[in-house]
C-alpha cells in the first residue's frame, strides 16, 4: 500500500497519500506485533487454507480504504472493487453503460486498481513467500493453498523468485509494446499490469473500445502470455520458443480461441470475435466493445461463457477450471469409452500429452469441476432471484465472469443490488483460491463457534 504514495506526487494528488500511508502503516504494525507475539508452529494443510483465505479477505478490506475515502464509494462497493482487483477479476462498479459512474477516478486511484490486480495475479501469498525467511513445510502448504502447485526451480524460494522475474519482464515488455503501438504511457503501464495479471481493469470508461489494431495485437499477446503457465514460460526462456508448442495447454488454448472466433465472427465481426474470445478464455476481461452489447444473442454469450468456465493454463495468472482439468475430463471420457471395447484384463493407462494420469488425479479433477459448477449454479440462482428482470444468459454470463475471475460484463454488475454484489465477492475469492480454502475458512469458523449447552 506504500507503492502508490510516490504516484500521488507524480500525479499532483498528494491529498490522497494518507489513504495509502495510514492503512499500510496499520497493516505493517499488526504484522510486526503478530510476528513477535507468536512462534512458528506446525500447521495442517487445512490450517494453511484458512490462513490464506483470511489473508485475502483482510488485504481486500484494507485495499478498499482508498476507494471509500478517495472516491466516495460505499463500504460494499469499495470492498467489491478491491476484491475484484486482488482476485484479478475486473468486474467493476465504477464503470456502467454510459462510462464512469460518479466521475472519472483520480489517476492514483486508477493506478491502485491496476496494482491490486498485478499483485493478485502474481498471488498475495507468492509475494509474501518471496520475502518470507522460512522455506519449510509451512511455506509449501501456504503456496499450495493459494492454488499454486508445481515448482519451477528445486526450491520454493527459487520458484517464487523466478515467477517474480518472469512477471516483471513481461509487464515491462507489455508496457513498452503498448506505448510503441500508440497508447499513452500511463495507460500502457496500467494495461500491461492488468493484462499480464489477466485482470482486466482499464483506465478508460469503455475498456479497449476505440483503440487501434496494433494496440489490439499487443493486448492479445499480453493476454495469452498471462494465461500460459510460468513453468512453460521458464522452459521457453531456458530452451527456446519450440517449448511453447510442446505444451498441450497452449495447443488447446489456440485451437479454442480459433474455433470460438470462427463461431462468433459471422455475427460480431472478426476483430471483436478474436479479441473477446481471447479475453474470455484467458480470463482477462479486456473488451473491444466495452460492455457486451445487448445485440449479442444467447449463442454468442454462451460461447464466451463456456470459455470463461474453461479458463487458461494451470500455474498461470488465469483462473476458472483451467485448461488442463478440462483436457483431463474430456480425455477420461474418451478413455472410458475406449476401455469399454477392450477385454476387462487389458491395461490401458490414461495418457494425455505425454503424461500418465492416475485415478487419484482424475478423481481430484472431477471433484473440483463438480464443486465449481455447484458454486456457479447456486450463485446464478441467487442472482436470478434478486434480479428477475435479467435473462438467464446474462445472469450465467455475469456469474461465470465473477467466478472465473474474468471481468467481462453485460451490465448487471453496475446495477446489481447489495445481495448480488456479496454473491459475486464470494464467487470471486472462491474462483481465485479454487474453492477449497474458502470452504475450509467457513468450516473452521462454524466449527469454532460456541454452541449452547442443552439444559440437564
TrEMBL record:
Q: Does the keyword Nucleotide-binding apply?
A: no
Q: Which GO terms describe its cellular component?
A: plasma membrane
Membrane topology type: Multi-pass membrane protein
> Known Pfam families for this protein?
TrkH
- Keywords, sorted A to Z: Cell membrane, Ion transport, Membrane, Transmembrane, Transmembrane helix, Transport
Is Ion transport tagged as a keyword?
yes
Membrane-spanning ranges:
16-36, 48-69, 115-135, 166-188, 208-230, 250-269, 320-337, 368-387, 422-446
The family annotation for this protein states: Belongs to the TrkH potassium transport family.
Q: What is this protein called?
A: Cation transporter
| Source species of the chain | candidate division MSBL1 archaeon SCGC-AAA261C02
Amino acid at each position: 500500500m506504500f507503492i502508490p504514495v510516490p504516484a500521488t506526487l507524480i500525479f499532483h494528488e498528494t491529498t490522497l497519500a494518507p489513504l495509502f500511508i495510514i492503512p499500510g502503516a496499520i497493516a505493517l504494525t499488526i504484522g510486526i506485533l503478530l510476528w513477535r507475539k507468536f512462534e512458528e508452529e506446525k500447521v495442517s494443510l487445512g490450517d494453511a487454507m484458512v490462513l490464506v483465505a483470511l489473508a485475502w479477505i483482510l488485504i481486500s478490506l484494507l485495499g478498499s480504504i482508498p476507494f471509500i475515502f478517495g472516491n466516495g464509494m460505499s463500504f460494499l462497493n469499495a470492498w467489491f472493487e478491491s476484491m475484484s482487483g486482488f482476485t484479478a477479476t475486473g468486474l467493476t462498479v465504477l464503470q456502467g453503460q454510459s462510462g464512469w459512474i460518479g466521475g472519472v477516478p483520480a489517476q492514483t486511484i486508477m493506478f491502485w486498481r491496476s496494482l491490486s490486480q498485478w499483485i493478485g495475479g502474481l498471488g498475495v501469498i507468492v509475494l509474501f513467500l518471496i520475502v518470507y525467511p522460512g522455506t519449510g513445510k509451512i511455506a509449501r502448504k501456504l503456496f499450495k493453498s493459494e492454488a499454486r502447485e508445481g515448482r519451477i526451480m528445486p526450491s520454493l524460494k527459487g520458484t517464487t523468485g523466478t515467477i517474480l522475474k518472469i512477471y516483471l519482464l513481461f509487464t515491462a515488455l507489455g508496457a513498452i509494446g503498448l506505448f510503441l503501438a500508440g497508447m499513452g504511457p500511463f495507460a500502457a503501464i496500467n494495461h500491461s499490469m492488468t493484462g499480464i495479471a489477466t485482470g482486466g481493469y482499464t483506465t478508460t470508461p469503455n475498456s479497449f473500445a476505440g483503440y487501434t489494431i496494433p494496440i489490439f495485437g499487443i493486448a492479445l499477446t499480453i493476454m495469452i502470455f498471462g494465461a500460459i503457465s510460468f513453468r512453460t514460460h521458464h522452459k521457453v526462456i531456458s530452451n527456446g520458443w519450440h517449448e511453447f508448442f510442446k505444451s498441450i495447454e497452449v495447443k488447446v488454448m489456440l485451437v479454442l480461441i480459433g474455433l470460438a472466433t470462427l463461431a462468433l465472427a459471422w455475427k460480431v465481426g472478426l476483430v471483436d470475435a478474436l479479441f473477446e474470445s481471447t479475453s474470455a478464455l484467458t480470463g482477462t476481461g479486456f473488451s473491444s466493445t466495452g460492455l457486451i452489447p445487448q445485440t449479442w444473442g444467447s449463442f454468442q454469450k454462451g460461447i464466451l461463457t463456456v470459455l470463461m468456465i474453461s479458463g487458461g493454463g494451470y500455474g498461470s495468472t488465469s483462473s476458472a477450471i483451467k485448461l488442463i482439468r478440462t483436457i483431463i475430463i474430456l480425455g477420461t471420457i474418451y478413455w472410458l469409452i475406449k476401455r469399454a471395447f477392450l477385454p476387462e484384463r487389458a491395461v490401458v493407462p490414461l495418457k494425455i500429452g505425454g503424461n500418465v494420469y492416475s485415478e487419484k488425479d482424475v478423481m481430484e479433477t472431477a471433484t473440483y469441476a463438480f464443486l465449481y459448477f455447484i458454486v456457479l449454479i447456486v450463485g446464478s440462482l441467487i442472482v436470478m432471484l434478486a434480479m428477475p428482470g435479467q435473462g438467464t444468459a446474462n445472469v450465467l454470463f455475469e456469474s461465470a465472469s465473477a467466478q472465473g475471475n474474468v471481468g467481462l460484463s453485460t451490465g448487471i454488475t453496475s446495477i446489481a443490488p447489495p445481495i448480488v454484489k456479496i454473491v459475486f465477492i464470494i464467487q470471486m475469492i472462491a474462483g481465485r483460491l479454487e474453492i477449497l480454502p474458502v470452504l475450509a475458512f467457513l468450516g473452521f469458523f462454524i466449527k469454532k463457534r460456541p454452541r449452547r449447552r442443552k439444559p440437564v
